[in-house]
Design brief:
This protein is of the alpha+beta class. 26% of the residues lie in helices and 27% in strands. The protein is built from eight helices and 20 strands. A five-stranded antiparallel β-sheet has the order 6-7-12-10-11. The longest helix has 19 residues.
C-alpha cells in the first residue's frame, strides 16, 4: 500500500493544476483496500476517491486524504446461469485499469459492446461511478456487477447493475453512496455478436467518407478514436477534463419552443417526452468557442471542453464555467451543469 504525506496531485488530475493533499493512499489488492477502509473509517479528515483525475477540477489544496486504486488485474468470470446466454462474455477488471485498455482488449478478443466508448479517459472504477458515455453508448449497458469494500465495515460487497440505479451520467455512487465504498473490481458483460451503433453524431458519415458501409468492430473503434482526436485536446498537451458539462435533457415542449427559434438545432430523442440538447452547441451559440478568461479557455474545436492554456488555477476555471452557465441560461433558459467533480 502506498501512503504518502503532503503529496502533490499534479499527476492525478488531467487539468494539470498544481495542488496538494495532506495524505495520499493507494491500494493494489482487495486486502489493501480493506486496510485503507479501516483508516478512512477512523479518521476525522475529509477524503476523496479519485481515478485518473480526468473528471476532477482542483481549486485548492485538499486538507484531507486522497484515495486511489491501483488494482489492475483481470479475470474471466462465470456469471449466474440465469443472467447469461450463449453470446455473453463476462470479464472482471480491477478498478485501476485504464478504461480504454478495456475497450482495446474487448475489440481484439471479439467481445463487443464497448466500441463507441473508445478513448474515453479514466479508469474502470470511474466507469462505474460516472456511468461514462459517448456516441449513444453508456457504461451501464455493459456493467454486470461491481465489487467494492464498504468503508464503514471493511466488508467486501457485490453490487449488481440494478442496485446502482444508473442514469445519464449518474449512479448511486455519486449521491447516497458517495464515499461509502472503495470499488475494487467491475465485471462487464460483452457480447460475441457485433451489433454496431452508427447513428449517433457523425459516426456513419465518417465511415462512409472512408468507403466503409459495414464496419468491423476494429474499424468502428478506430473511427471513434479519430473523431475524438480531431475535436478533443490531448490532456498531456493541453490540460482538460474532457467534456466539462453534461448535455441537458429537457421536456419536449421546451425543445419545440427552442427548435422553432433556432433552425437546425441539434438534438437527440431520449424518450417521447424528453430531448437531449448538446451543451456544446449552446455554448458555441453564446460565442464562447475558442475564447478565454485569463489562462482558462474554451477549446477552439469543441465548446464542451474547457482547457488550461498554461498555468491556470482552479479558480480561473471556475470563473470561466460560471460565466458560461450564466450566458447559456440567459440565452436559452436552460441551466447546464458541470460533469466534473469540483474540489
Amino acid at each position: 500500500m502506498k501512503d504518502i504525506l503532503d503529496c502533490s496531485l499534479l499527476a492525478h488530475n488531467t487539468f494539470g493544476i498544481e495542488a496538494r493533499c495532506r495524505r495520499f493512499l493507494e491500494f493494489d489488492t482487495v486486502d489493501e483496500a480493506r486496510q485503507v477502509a479501516g483508516i478512512l473509517a477512523h479518521t476525522d479528515m475529509p477524503f476523496i476517491i479519485v481515478g485518473e483525475g480526468s473528471n476532477l477540477l482542483l481549486t485548492r489544496d485538499f486538507e484531507g486524504i486522497v484515495v486511489h486504486s491501483a488494482i489492475r488485474d483481470k479475470a474471466m468470470v462465470m456469471a449466474d446461469a440465469c443472467a447469461a446466454n450463449a453470446d455473453d462474455v463476462f470479464v472482471s477488471y480491477g478498478s485501476g485499469v485504464t478504461w480504454d485498455d478495456v475497450v482495446a482488449e474487448s475489440v481484439a478478443n471479439g467481445w463487443h459492446g464497448a466500441e463507441n466508448l473508445s478513448l474515453i479517459p479514466g479508469e474502470v472504477g470511474a466507469s462505474a461511478v460516472q456511468n461514462i458515455g459517448a456516441y449513444g453508448a453508456e457504461a451501464k449497458d455493459l456493467i454486470f456487477d461491481v465489487e467494492a469494500v464498504e468503508i464503514a465495515t471493511g466488508n467486501v460487497v457485490r453490487l449488481f447493475n440494478a442496485d446502482c440505479e444508473y442514469a445519464y451520467r449518474q449512479s448511486r455512487f455519486k449521491h447516497e453512496w458517495k464515499n461509502k465504498f472503495l470499488i475494487t473490481h467491475v465485471t462487464y458483460r460483452f457480447s460475441r455478436t457485433f451489433t454496431p451503433d452508427l447513428d449517433y453524431g457523425n459516426i456513419r458519415h465518417s465511415l462512409e467518407s472512408k468507403g466503409i458501409a459495414t464496419p468491423t468492430a476494429e474499424q468502428l473503434r478506430q473511427t471513434i478514436i479519430e473523431i475524438r482526436q480531431a475535436k478533443l485536446p490531448d490532456p498531456k498537451v493541453m490540460g482538460n477534463a474532457g467534456s466539462f458539462f453534461m448535455n441537458p435533457v429537457v421536456d419536449r415542449d421546451v425543445y419545440e419552443r427552442l427548435a422553432a427559434q433556432y433552425e437546425g438545432m441539434p438534438h437527440y430523442v431520449v424518450d417521447p417526452e424528453h430531448i437531449k440538447i448538446p451543451a456544446g452547441w449552446m455554448i458555441e451559440q453564446c460565442g464562447w468557442k475558442g475564447r478565454s478568461l485569463g489562462r482558462a479557455g474554451v477549446h477552439d474545436r469543441q465548446s464542451l471542453v474547457l482547457v488550461n492554456r498554461g498555468g491556470a488555477t482552479g479558480g480561473e476555471v471556475v470563473t470561466l464555467y460560471e460565466q458560461i452557465i450564466k450566458d447559456v441560461k440567459a440565452k436559452f433558459g436552460i441551466e447546464i451543469h458541470p460533469e466534473v467533480n469540483v474540489i
